[in-house]
Amino acid sequence: xxxxxxxxxxxxxxxxxxxxxxxxxxxxxxxxxxxxxxxxxxxxxxxxxxxxxxxxxxxxxxxxxxxxxxxxxxxxxxxxxxxxxxxxxxxxxxxxxxxxxxxxxxxxxxxxxxxxxxxxxxxxxxxxxxxxxxxxxxxxxxxxxxxxxxxxxxxxxxxxxxxxxxxxxxxxxxxxxxxxxxxxxxxxxxxxxxxxxx
Amino acid sequence: xxxxxxxxxxxxxxxxxxxxxxxxxxxxxxxxxxxxxxxxxxxxxxxxxxxxxxxxxxxxxxxxxxxxxxxxxxxxxxxxxxxxxxxxxxxxxxxxxxxxxxxxxxxxxxxxxxxxxxxxxxxxxxxxxxxxxxxxxxxxxxxxxxxxxxxxxxxxxxxxxxxxxxx
Lengths: 198, 167
Fold this sequence. Notes:
The complex is a heterodimer. By secondary structure, chain A is mainly β. Chain A is 11% helix and 29% strand. Chain A contains 4 helices and 9 strands, in the order βββαββββαββαα. In chain B, a hairpin with a 2-residue loop joins strand 11 (131-137) and strand 12. Chain B is globular, with a radius of gyration of 19 Å.
């Protein structure tokens, strides 16, 4: 009789999705992390020049306004989220950023069937987040829409090389099935806490 | 002979049961307007918790509500009726709609169960309305909402500029 004990533990592969959680009013949106290029403070120096350097030529609009809602421009914790798209980048203002979060795909639910309008195109899913609910933004719709101003190809080509900013605690991240991780660029202050931990 | 008698007797019993069929209604109010719904279309009544706005163009469906691990859509019945609810003491009524449960904010006044004769319910077929019948309860003629189809008529109502009144 063998003394070796066998464990029937099965290493389960977990499908993890990574989102940048942002707040607009009391609504939380989850932006897939691979669509996010950078997060900057709106009061950081010359914002226009900064955004231009990131390849953003259109002025940032409030994320809430993309859904026909009224966005607040008074939040002291406001941030500008720069999103990447094929032919350039686009910037959205949000009331606050709650950081990057890895979410088990099994915990993501589709939008409830009671919602039958265009919102089914805007929101691709939702999940429980802290004491509230986060709505997953359809970045294909958000960034691919004709509503967004077209970018000049010259500005798209002038994007600076990315300095990778990895939050300190994220070095030993769990292995995920999504193999392409976003790279983030630090805005201005090197001594600031990484934006993802704000 | 005996067989015939039993047959006649049982027929009389069935008729008597039909005559006394009763329906349990839940009487509640929204912005001061009293109304009722079949109790079997109600999934529960809880204290109201803060709703989370959702960008939406579905009429009167602009929020969700978290209840433990569940996420429920919120139907704005008060908005449909153009009335206001005092949010401090509001209650959450769970409507058992055909496509899933839905939260509705109602007045803080505790809803009451009322047993009524089915025959006392007078069916109505109003345009752009979720009301399926009216019923005299006490001295009041109350509208009886179909919670299973609540909001189904709202799209048509919005297109035709309806809403307000007893929508």
